[in-house]
Amino acid sequence: MSQSLPAQAVVERVLELSRASDCMVLVNENSTANLRWAGNSLTTNGVTRSREVTVISLVEGDKGTSVGAVSRSGLRDDQLAELVTASEEAARQAPAAEEARPLLAPEAAATATAAWDGAPASTDIGVFSGFAPALGGAFERSGAAGTQLYGYAEHTMASTFFGSSTGVRLRHDQPTGTVELNAKSADPAHSTWVGRATRDFADVDVAALEAELSRRIGWARNRVDLPAGRYETLLPPEAVADMMVNLYWNMGARDSFEGRTAFSASRGGTRVGERLAKLPLTLRSDPAEPGLECEPFVLADAPGRRISAFDNGLPISGAKWISDGELSRLVQTHDSAVLTALPLTPHTGNLILEEPKATASLEEMIAGTERGLLVTCLWYIRSVDPRTMLLTGLTRDGVYLVEDGEVRGAVNNFRFNESPVGLLQRATEVGRTVPALSRELGDYFSRTAMPPLRIPDFNMSTVSQAS
């Protein structure tokens, strides 16, 4: 029997088959179009469609509620019963969930962002109708200049259908697009990277991306070798996004309350109310942020310490995680909000860092630099110490020396050791916030807006041989 039931019918069928105490089901319908290019020529393109069904069964026992969450892709309609059985068996084998709570009733859940009925949202190769010709022009100009362009563009339309045995029915359609471009000089002694996130590719300015790559390739005509050490460093919005997304993913309230993160107080509890930055920085999320819109209710495929399926359907509104330099909120589930006695502020799918009065562009900050580094891209970031949020990683595709307000040349790569909390504490200048795609984490969390930052003593711990 082939897959034929629409997503809404799959939700109803799973709930009908369930024999658990309570049940939730998520059906994710994904439609993706992509382009890939290398050496100034398109190499592949395609469109894919997929469906994933997740069944979350809750089973009441003597010691409480246990949970079994099982996901499957490519299911036929006649395999839904097997999936439900697997979820219920997983629940029976699991220990009681300490964060268990009653599922939301319809009157307590959010309002759906799209009509329940109707076909899933979809994309196709036509989403690149303006982007692809512009990219072709960039190929011609880059080839004439002796530069090779490589990269990838992807657009996804994801429709998520959620239903619960308590009667909640919600749907959300999410467009997500990214483009990443690498330019390599002819030798090829130098490479550089730019990336952008988009909802529909209508706002992607290929010529501007090409111009930025060309400018950086030009900077690299002069090579400067520098030793490890602490340098005044300008981080552009994309590199700031890498660090701030790492910070955000470590803002779980339960872990902080239990002494596991940089937001844990030394004498117990959390650091909410403490100043984290000297400058009046605000770190916030808002599902309705223009250009960064995301799901306005919780959609989770399993229980968790930071995001929990027990909160599925819970409305999400804007939250300031850091307000005027002070830690004001942590990412909460219902359970952790009770534990910490702090407001219930769920994880949100976007992140914005800003200083309200900051207007300087990265170019203006370069012009105001006597001597320092411009680090355009961070890579291979890994945690060293969760308690202090110390991270290590590499620079890649563009480190430059700035002297007397001008970029003098490309610098060798480094390994760095830094904490995003420490960067906020030590930042001496903040520029204008703009949409920014994290190089390392953009595949998982693309909806960010960040400013450039000036760090007086960024720690380049060792010279890296990477090129």
What can you tell me about this protein's structure?
This protein has helices spanning 7-17, 80-93, 131-144, 206-219, 237-249, 253-257, 334-340, 362-367, 420-426; strands at residues 22-38, 41-61, 64-73, 148-164, 169-184, 191-198, 223-224, 229-235, 282-285, 319-323, 326-327, 351-354, 371-375, 378-385, 390-395, 399-403, 406-411, 414-418, 429-430, 434-435, 448-450, 453-463. It is of the alpha+beta class and 467 residues long. The termini are far apart.
Strand content: 35-45%
Number of strands: 22
What sort of overall outline do the alpha carbons produce when their principal axes are compared? globular
Derived structural class: alpha+beta
- The count of helical stretches stands at 9
Rounded mean pLDDT score: 96
Helix proportion of residues, in percent? 10-25%
Describe the sheet with the most strands.
10 strands, mixed
List low-confidence stretches. Answer: none
User: What oligomeric assembly is this protein in?
Assistant: single chain
